[in-house]
Amino acid sequence: MKYETGMPRGAAVRNATLTRVRTGWLLAVLGILTLAASPASHAQYFSLAKGPYPLEFYDIDFSSLADPANRTGVLDSLHYIPLGWGSESYLSLGGEVREQYWNQVNEADALRKPIDNSYDLQRVAFDAYLHFDSHFSAFGEVLRADSFDKVSPSTTDETRGRLQQGFLQGEDTIGPLDLTARVGRQEIMLGSDRFVWINDSSNVRTTQDGARVHAGFGDGYTLDLIVSRPVTSTYTAFDDWNSHAGSFGAAYASEPLLGSQLHVDEYYYYRRQSNIQFAKLTGTDDRETVGGRVWGAFGSFKYDSDFAYQWGTYDTTTLAKTVSAVGTSTRFLYSFEDVPLEPGAWFQTSYFSGTDNPRSHTIGTFNAPFPRPTLLNYAGLDTLENLIEAYPAVLITPVSQFSLRFGPEALWRANVNDAVYVSRTTPLTTTLNDHARYIGTNLIATAQWAITPNVILFAEYLHEIAGKAITLAGGHDAEVGVVQLDVNF
User: Global pTM?
Assistant: First the structure.
């Protein structure tokens, strides 16, 4: 942990800062817990028995608070502030305070440092959503993120301050067509979030500078068009205006075919990234992805599947290769909602291709534009490259708004000639020395408690039983535990 000057913090300064920050956080939590719950929250983790909460503050509709009789809670005075410019002009204020505690033993299977890591992460965000009228609005979010006691924190762990989001938005209805255009800094999620995600498990979420157009054609038909430049976060405050990581473009369409029973999505992504490592190569990845999603529900049975193919080029300083990769992931859930504990049977399976021959002219390692490693587990111990996954689990709800999930997640390499990958396309290069397929089995227990609609307590414990792909490379079993309290207001 460092100052902006790069000098290490002294223990006394760190402890004083930690005490001050934690005291302020605790007071904020206690204060907010006494307030009336907001209509919704924008915290989301795993979709347990009760499903996700909205991630974005601007997805909450506060327009009903225009009637003073509906402003019954203390927070309502922040969520709806009339501006007097017209009946549809108002300002909504809100934010988030999130505290995480992480404990990692044998991080990355003890195949790279740090081996053990125990630390706190804290995130504080403030939102302002200004409605000029029903057609034009502006949204802004500022964020500060801090890490305490983490070995070698990255820019996804801490920043002294940044404009997380800041965009102008226009909306209009033309016949049956609902149009929304957004320009500026924004967080982008698409479809199931498997391949385009904002990395919410990290302290600093992924944001992008660009434009997005959303068209709704009625009856659930939608089309999204996006052109953007992902922002690279920095430690120093408000210093990332010209800090970008490649480029991104997307077209995403969704159609309901059988009401809520069957939806079919189609998508195209373009992503350019530099300094991407596959096996022992580092280069610039220009990759296009075309795919589809099938999802829906038949009564208590829910399903969600993504299928994608990728092509493009991968250039290093000495050679150029073509890209040909595939990725798919499917999740099923059957809920027994009318019996005690409301049990559910969950199964998830995934396949993300790897490179067959490191000396060939083709990169076969799947690389999602903005992968969601929490698809596999919240710890993000494994990533969506060169991987086969099978994950059966049981969900129960002992009491209202409190859900548990537990089960074993078995993992194999899709191709034994490619590396095992961790932490966002980081290959464990020592695993290239063996050709074992079995990576290991994660024993996972996850809990989520919605204390109120805007206060969420989450915890997960994962113990990885290392397989031969790890042990033959000199690695060991690993453990990860996380406890997270998220307060939205």
Answer: 0.88
